[in-house]
Amino acid sequence: MSLTALLVHDYDEAISFYVGKLGFELRDNRPLTVEKRWVVVAPHGAATGLLLARAADDTQRQAVGDQSGGRVFLFLETDDFERDHLAYTRLGIHFIEAPRREPYGIVAVFEDLYGNRWDLIQLVRTDC
Q1: 3-state secondary structure of 127
Q2: pLDDT tens digits along 64-89
Q3: 92 and 99 in contact (C-beta within 8 Å)?
Q4: Non-local CB neighbours of 97 within 8 Å, separated by 6+ positions
């Protein structure tokens, strides 16, 4: 997989959140038509990214922020959970739970600017 389409209300406010708050890089931002742009953001060094897709009709606008029916939709892996959790908290990222330790790692659920749920996660590394 190379991209995941993420419905947004506005390209620029989404760029501001993902680049300005989460620290993603803006990989592409070009006009396609008067109304549409090809906007790709991704965590630094990631092989995959998000295609920010502006909602174009009522059905799409209703799905913004709830693309996974209220479940965690995306997973943001970190190599230093405490550092990133603290930085995001200071930037006003809304975590809906306290960090917790699971058999697979340290995790906490946060919401993006539209309410989509993400896991900030530092996985336990195992040698298999």
Answers
A1: coil
A2: 999 999 999 999 999 999 999 999 99
A3: no
A4: 108, 109
